[in-house]
Structures are given as C-alpha cells and as structure tokens.
Amino acid sequence: MSPRRGALLVLAVFLSACLDPAAADQPGSVEGYTIAGRIKIDAASAKGFGLPAKTSNTKVILNGGQKVTFARPDGYFAFHNVPAGTHLIEVSSLGYFFSPVRVDISARNPGHIQAALTENRRVLNELVLEPLKAEQYYEVREPFNIMSLLKSPMGLMVGFMVLMVFVMPKMMENIDPEEIKQAQEQMRNSPVPSFSGLLARANS
Amino acid sequence: MAPPPRRLLLALVGFLAAAALATLAVAVYEDQVGLADWHQKYIGKVKQAVYHSQKSGRRRVVVLTEENVIASLDLRSGDIFWRHVIEKNDPVDQLSLSLGKYVVTLSSGGSILRAWNLPDGQMIWETNMQTSTASKSLLHVLSNNKVAKDNLVLVSAGQWIYAVSSIDGVISWGKEFTLDGLEIKQVTQSPENDIVYVVGIAGSSKLAVYHLNAKTGEIIKDIQESLPGGLCGEMLLGSDNRLVALDETRSALYIVEFKGESISYKKVKISDFVQDISGTVKLLPLMSNGIIALQSSSTISLLKLQGLNGLEVIHSFDRPAAVSDALTITEKDEAFAVVQHLGSQIEFIVKVTSDASNEIIREKVNIDQHRGSVEKVFLNNYVRTDKSHGFRALVVMEDHSILLIQQGAVVWSREDGLASIVDVMASELPVEKDGVSVADVEHNLFEWLKGHMLKLKGTLMLASVDELAAIQALRVRSSEKNKMTRDHNGFRKLLIVLTKAGKVLALHTGDGRIIWSNLLPSLRASKSGEMPSALRLYQWQVPHHRVMRENPSILVVGRSGADSVAPGVLSILDSYSGEELNSQRFDHSVVQIIPLTLKDSSEQRLHLIVDSNSYAHLYPKSLDALDSFVPEMSNIYFYSVDIQKNAIRGYSLQKSSDLNLDDQYCFGTKELWSINFPSDSERIAISETRKMNEVVHTQAKIIADQDVMYKYLSKNLVFVATVSPKAAGEIGSAAPEEASLVAYLIDAVSGRILHRVTHHGAQGPVHAVVSENWVVYHYFNLRAHRFEIAVIEIYDQSRADNKDVMKLILGKHNLSAPMTSYSRPEVMVKSQSYFFTHSVKAMAVTQTAKGITSKQLLIGTIGDQVLALDKRFLDPRRSVNPTQQEKEEGIIPLTDSLPIIPQSYVTHSVQVEALRGIVSIPAKLESTTLVFSYGVDLFYTRLAPSRTYDSLTDEFSYALLLITIVALVAALFVTWIWSEKKELRDKWR
C-alpha cells in the first residue's frame, strides 16, 4: 500500500476488516483516497410513514453526481479513487431529510479526513450519516371532530344565534316586570342619542 | 382617522397573510394519490437479459438497459420487482447471475463490480478494480458443477484480469498480462477442469491465448501467433478449441484450431460461401457445436464450421432479423432462436445447434405495426408438465419496447421507449360535438343499453372475464377525467412526447394511457446503418376560425444522422390520430429551429430552420407563407450560443444574394453583434430565455408604500452564465479562489448587456429559469460549500416617473410607448441569494393561462423529486426585519436558506428516476397548471400554486352543504310552528 492510499475514518477497525483486503490486493496504487462511512436510519423514526425503513434505495452521491454508490444492507458505503480536496456528499433516501456533508481530504496530511454537515455546521467525528428528520409527504387528515366543527366561524355564529333565540327571552322573563317598566320610562325621559343631537353637541 | 380600527385591519391582514403562508404548501392527502396524478415506471431499451434458473421457481428476468437501469421483471406480467438507475457517468456494460442469488454488474469500463441481491435488489457488495481505461470490459461467472460455497467472477478489461469472490466481493487474484498492447477479447472456461481460457489480441495481428488456473491465476500455457492480414477484433472462441475471427477488412474469417501446443489456422473468404454479402460484416455472439452467425447489412447467415476446411451455410435470413445467444437445454445440446419479419407478423423460430437445419418451433406472432423491426431476442426455456421443452423469448423492438412471446402470442409488452423522452408538448383534445346525428343516437342508445346490461351482469356476478374487462374499460371511458374530449377546465389534454427511438406517442393526461403512437419512418434506422436522431416537437397548426374543421397538427424535426451537419428530416402528424400527413427530407442540416409567431392563411405556424452554413430556411414552403413572412422579415432577429467558440451572436435576416438564388425560401443571415467571452477566464455554462408562450398579467408591481415599479418585460431577454475554466469541472476539483461565476442579462436583439454580476468562489453546474422579469439560478458556493439559488429581478426605470396622476390624466406618460429593443431603457436590478440544500437536476416555473396566479418554481432535486417552491421565497425585497407595510404585502422575513417543506413535493412519495425535465402546461382554469416531469419514469399532476381560488376543490363536501340547507329549512319550520303556538298562547292569555 502506498502512503497515498486508503483514508478511513474512526470506523477504521471495522472498515479495515471489510474493505482493506480488497484494497490491499489491488495491484498498483490508485491515485486517490477512499471515503468510507455509514448511513444510519433509525427504524423508530420511520413510524407513521408509509414506507419501510429500507436502505435498498438509498443512494450516496459524491459532488452532485460525479460518483454515486448505494448503501449496503448494514448501511456502509465507500467511494474509491477520490482526489484530495473538498468534496460534498449527499444522501438521497425517500422519506428522510439528510444534510449534505462537506468532506475535506488533505493532500499534505495523508489519511486525514474532516467531515461536517453543511446544514448546521456540525462537525462529524466519524462519517455516520443520520437523517436530520423524517419527511412526511402527505398532509395528515384531521379526524372528524364535533368540537372543531363548533369552533369554526360557522359553528360560532350558529351558537351565538341559538343563544340569542333561546336564552335571551328567558332572561327577559326572569327580570322583574316593574324593573322593565322603570327602565322603559327612563328611556322615554332621556333624549334618544340621535346623530343630529350628537352634531349639535359637537357644535356647542 | 381613529387609529384603533386601522390597527385592527392590519392585524386582520397580517393574520390572513400568515394563514396564506401556512397554506403555501400544495399538499395532498394520502388518499388523494392517483386522483389527479399518475406515475409510470419504465426501464429503457433492454440490451442484456438474464433469466433466473429454472430451479429457483421464480419466473423472473433481470435486464440491463441502455438507460443504465438494472431491473428485475416478472416474466408473467412484465411488472418491475425492483430497479436501480445507475448514474450516466458509471455506464453498466455487463450483467450476470452468480450462485443463483446474486446479480453481478460490471460498470465504468470494468472498474466497478457490484453484486445485488436477486430477490429484493439490495446491494450486497461493491469492489473497485484498477483496469486500463478505454477498453471493452468482460464479465464471466465461473460455473461450478461441484457443490462449492463460492463462485468466482472473472472480470477483464484491457490487459487485466481479476477473479472476485461472489460472496463478499474480495479479489482472490488479479493479473496483468505483460504482452504489450494486449486487449482481452474473450474469457471462457473449460467444462472439465479448472482452466480458464483467455483470448486477446495485441496490436492488430497478434493473437494470444492463455490458459490460467482458475483458483490461483497462474498461467499454465500461453500461445501466441501472428496472423497475416490483421484482425479487426471480433472473435469467438468455442469450447472445442476452435476460434473464429474476422480479419481487418471484415471480408474473410480466420479459423484457428488449437491442438496441444500447436496452433493451426486457415483463412477463408466470406464471399466464397455466402452470396451477395454487403455492408459491414459482424460476428454475432453465437457459437456452439460449430455453429456461428454472421450479420451483414442485409442478411443474417448461420454457418457451420467443418474442421479447418471451411464453412457451410445452413440458413440465411433476410434482415431485419435477430438471433439469440445459445441456451443450454441438455448436456450436449444448445438451442437458439431466430426472429424475422413476415409481412405484418413476426416469425419466431427455435433451432438446436446439434441439428441446425431443423426447427423445433416455428410460430407466427401478430404484433403492433408501430413497433418497427426486431432488434434483439433473448431465449428462455421451461419444462412443460410432460417433460418436454417449451420456449419463450423476450423480443426487443426498434421503438425500444419489449415483448414476451410464448406459444405464438404476445404475453405482455412494455412501452419502454418512454424512458428516453426527447421533447414534450401538450395538445388539445377534440371538442365535444353538440349536434349528434340520428344514427349516432341510435348507436349510442344501443351502446347505452348494452353497457347497462353489462353492468347489471357485473353486479349479479354473472359476467365472464371478457365482460368484466369490458365493464372496466367502460368505467375508464365514462370516468370524467379520462374522456376523449376537451373539458371546461382544460385539464384533459394530450401530452405528445417524442422518444429517442423516433417514436411519437400521445398520452392522455387523465390516466397516462397511450392514445396513439407512431414510429416515424423518417426517423428509423436506414439500411446503410445511419442512426437518425429525433430533435424537437413543435405546434404546426392550431385551427381557429377558417380551418376549424381540420385537426391540429404537430411538427417533428430530426436529423438523418447523429452528426450535426447531417441533413434534417421533418414530419407533420395529425395530433388527434397520430397519422403522418407529410414528411420531408431536407437538403440542408438543422442547427436551430425558430418557431415564428406568424401564420399563413391555413393557420400553419411559420418556422425558420437555420442550417450549419447560417442560411435560414422558411417552412412551410408555400407562396402564401412567403407572403406573410417577407413584410415581417426586417423585424426578425435571432441569436445563437456557440459553446465551442465561447461566444453569443445576434443575427438578422436578409434576402440571400449568393448561391441559393433559385431558392426563394432560403434567406441569408447577417451578424449584427457578438459577445466573445474571454476563454481564459470564462466559459459559457448555460443560456436561458423566457418561454415563448408565457403570459404576463401585470406590467407593474405595486409595493407597500403605494409606489409602483415597472417590470422590464422583454421577450428578448437572455440569461447567460459563465464559469471560470477551472471551475467548469466537478465540485471537488476547484478551490474557491480560482472559481467564479458571472451572470449576464443580455438583450438578444441589440446585444446590449443589461446587467452583469460576478459571484466569486462559485461554480457550476448552473441551472436557471427565466420568467416575466426575473431569473432564478442555482449554483454551488465553494466558500460556504453549499448550493445557492440566486434571483435577479429587472425593472424598467424609464417608466418609473409615470406615477404622477396629473401626468396620467393629461396623457403625458410613456406607458403606451411600445416596449422595444431598439431603445435603451434605463433598467434597475435587484438581486438576492439564498442557500439551498440539494443539488438540482432540472428547474422550471409554473405557467398559468393568464399569468395572474402567483408563480412557483419547480425544482427537480438530486433525489429525483420535484419540489414546488413559492416565488415569494425568492424575492429580492426580502429583509431580515420587514416593515409593517412590507409584511402586509406578504414579504417573508429573510432567512439564509430556502425552506424545504416535505408536503410541497409535487411528486409526494414517488421518485421520477433519472429526472431530466419538468414541463408546466397552463390549464384553462387560471389557478391550475399541469405539471409533467420525465426521466426514466413519468409523473404527471395538477398544481394550483395559490390554491384553487376559482373553483371548488375536490375536497368540497357537497353532502355537508346539502345537509346544512336541509337542517336550516327544518329549523325554519320548527321555529315557525313554535312561534305560531306561542302567539296563540299569548292571545289566549
């Protein structure tokens, strides 16, 4: 193996077990590095969504389509022959929102790879990509609810009308007839606050 | 006036705006899927097919297609079990099965080997190998008769050969042959022992044969021989130590025989035993029991090797015909199939190699006429209950469709040409006729009665299978959305698509079914082997007043060869029936097609076709067209973008003075202006213009402080983006310091640069969309290492002082002055940019009938989904803290990145694999637009960017409305009776 080969992240122990034999057997060194990582989709976060949490259609995309690979059943993926520089890894998996990952491979310091999520600038110690959130593509239908119907403007209006029609006469009945008479008299005595009256008062 | 009410009003408006924002997403409920949308999955033209072994019991076939798709299909129905679309820059060359449970694919010139799980398509492992580039790669899975745990997969390309374990993808050995310039041509395996034969050629004439130990890769024997006269590279190695190779001139065959250490060969001329052979001769990969197949341009010949003495012709088939690979049926015997055309039918012949002069099966199969000729055939056998062999075959046709034929009939077919759509347009359906003749009524009555009888039978469960199908078909036809007539809302249309194979298909927007299809004869491969290419679709004739009785027609333009200087071809099709009305072969090439707004007296659209010598040709070639064209000629300008020379040029037309004097439909062009970008710092990445048919409703924009801004609405606005040469490559290749992107807004008539902006540290790929007075473009920001979407809005400053009411009243304004490119208006530009999470594959903008509805951007993301993003998020007037007035206007507070709301994916939970294009077609209803996106899959849906404000939604509950009315009437009666009673009681009191 030449010094410019294989640069694995913290997962090196496991990865070297699964990838390195293949790499070591390759005759002739390849100009470039290997970016290896893992996609972790928590099955629990997928609940409620119609699609099963399967990795079979999870694509891992390097630099907007320069290289595309698929995740294995255990979630591991690898890009080979990647030159030094700053790269972008995107994950496309239906039902999940993944942040793109910025990966820096330094040419001066072989084997040193840095990774950070571009969405929230979180630095990754190991290249384990987890969805930021599960995506719900459908609007959730509210179940029929009598309260929501009543709370709607129509419902409130109907409620108010019912109140006026049935409750107000009852209230009127409960008031002492003498008090009503008194009130009526008072009304008659005091001048009706008419518009002209208001104007007159404003002028005076 | 009093402030409180104003505040109340503001609050209300704010509430409404918030409510509008909350409902920005055009979400669907899960149970609405399939009501207004449809999704169709395709795979593309099959280039390799491998059947599951008989023992596994599953009737499946794994195919590899030219669209770079690997898929597992159900042999009974043609349905897709699973499918993977591999990226275009990782072409898959070979496909094979291993251990009966893995699909092994070899891609990228033999450097990437992947294994997929056969039942569900999950990738199991991936191995990278280093090979010499630019050589044909080969894949050979060692068959193992012994019960072994592992199977080796041999991969070879150029000088390299690798053996890879098919269980975990570990390379067990790799070998580079030392012979200079060796190219491995074939790898076979001896049936008895663990020896692998590798045949290659070095240079043009040196033949090398190696015997390798399959377990270790050791060379056991190596034979090299120079053949005089050279080799063209096509050769076949039989298992019986014989090799057949074509010589350099493709006119003679070498028959080489290996006996122990010795090698002996003989050269035989093909013309000696095959009569009238013409064109390029090819060796077809069929070789067993000494039978080989030779293909010339007119025939396919089956030949039998007779030792070194020569060949004998067994049978000759006229092309178009196809021969399958040999299929082992018994230990010694192999079968192969030949399919040839017989009038309107195809003939399916199966022969065995031990007795090739006889046929096991000869069946005639009826096929659809619009499928063209047979291109490939893949044979498969099955064991019948009486232990005899039955045969079926997958047949790949010229229009890229595949058929499964068995027992003389087509069991199923797939229209896979739709995976490679070149161009799309929408066409109206016929108008529903009001006046119906008596005969029609009688006919209809009879049909109606019959239909009801059928339905009755269906409900009583008396219907047979055929009748059930008829009922289903009736339902589909009578269903409102699938009718074959124009509807009031303009939702029902024909989507006319042109595929790479030169087939034009019309899809109904209701359910995506194919209404008609036509494989255009002018776009079919000719006998001489040149492959025409389909280019574009245009509206040719849309009948109005005078020619109302005629059907609308469409124009298909193509080239008769792959080269851009190849002469063009033209076809005109009836858009209701797909019939070809006219076809023509040009005597000039096609570089640019300019549909004009002019029409001749028969309502045919005029088109200018510019050839490679910069002459413009007018179509249709009629005097009538010329009459309407010549007066307008001085007003016609066009521009061309020359990526090679890194320049944009503007032209006008003039009467041609030289050469084509006799052709009055040919015009010369005059270069008016040109913009040459400096090649050392800028390369053209993209150029984009407004859609020709876009409608804009308002010229001005009223902003919050009662001010007016006039949009700069010019049809001649061109957006051009250039990137620095170092940043022209992929994302990881350039440093931020050396990358820059320059965006230009150019007037295409005068060549004036209206606006220029440089984004430092930005690079492509650039995607852009131009609409009304704005441009939105997507690029990569290297400094932030994120994608960005920028918006530029352009306003006309010269009209800005038209705000004075007095001026307007007195007519001292320039609003009625025509918008023209001849003047140089002052423009004002506003721009802003935002982060966007995903890579983009395609971008489009919604189009509505009158342009009143607010716009949405349709963004095809890297995950093959289409996201609808409101244009309000891309408004340069957004600020971090919008004022109260701006909030009222609906300006969203500025955020650094654009929101991705999962509910606003118009493709909801489906993916349009390998998305290439998005088309928005206005419906008649102003609020609604029809969105069609295509790639390997097709997806269609209806979209209402500002909700369906001009119609009730499908959601609307008519039942609730009725119930409410009934309840109100009932309440009215009850209360009336109550009040009557109360009055009566009061009177009695």
TrEMBL record, chain A:
GO MF entries: carbohydrate binding
UniProt cross-references to SUPFAM superfamilies, sorted A to Z: Starch-binding domain-like (SSF49452)
Subcellular location: Membrane
One Pfam family per UniProt: EMC7_beta-sandw
Chain residue ranges for the region called Disordered: 182-204
Comp. bias (Polar residues): 183-193
Gene3D superfamilies: Carboxypeptidase-like, regulatory domain
Secretion signal span: 1-24
Bilayer topology: Single-pass membrane protein
ER membrane protein complex subunit 7 beta-sandwich domain location: 54-157
PROSITE patterns, per database record: PROKAR_LIPOPROTEIN
GO cellular component: EMC complex
InterPro entries to which the protein is assigned, alphabetical: Beta_sandwich_EMC7, Carb-bd-like_fold, EMC7
Alphabetic keyword roster: Membrane, Signal, Transmembrane, Transmembrane helix
Transmembrane segments: 146-167
Alphabetical list of PANTHER family matching this protein: ER MEMBRANE PROTEIN COMPLEX SUBUNIT 7
Homology family: Belongs to the EMC7 family.
Protein name according to UniProt: ER membrane protein complex subunit 7 beta-sandwich domain-containing protein
Species whose genome carries this gene: Lolium multiflorum (Italian ryegrass)
TrEMBL record, chain B:
Annotated InterPro entries: Beta-prop_EMC1_1st, EMC1, EMC1_C, Quinoprotein_ADH-like_sf, WD40/YVTN_repeat-like_dom_sf
Transmembrane segments: 956-979
Chain ranges of the EMC1 first beta-propeller domain: 27-416
Membrane topology recorded in Swiss-Prot or TrEMBL: Single-pass type I membrane protein
ER membrane protein complex subunit 1 C-terminal domain sequence ranges: 771-988
One GO-annotated biological process of the protein: protein folding in endoplasmic reticulum
GO CC aspect terms: EMC complex
The UniProt record lists the keyword Metal-binding: no
Residues spanning the signal sequence: 1-27
This protein's UniProt keywords: Endoplasmic reticulum, Glycoprotein, Membrane, Signal, Transmembrane, Transmembrane helix
Statement: the UniProt record of this protein carries the keyword NAD: no
Major place of residence: endoplasmic reticulum
Subcellular location: Endoplasmic reticulum membrane
Top-rank lineage group of the source organism: Eukaryota
Assembly and interaction partners: Component of the ER membrane protein complex (EMC).
The family this protein is said to belong to: Belongs to the EMC1 family.
Record-given protein name: ER membrane protein complex subunit 1
UniProt organism field: Lolium multiflorum
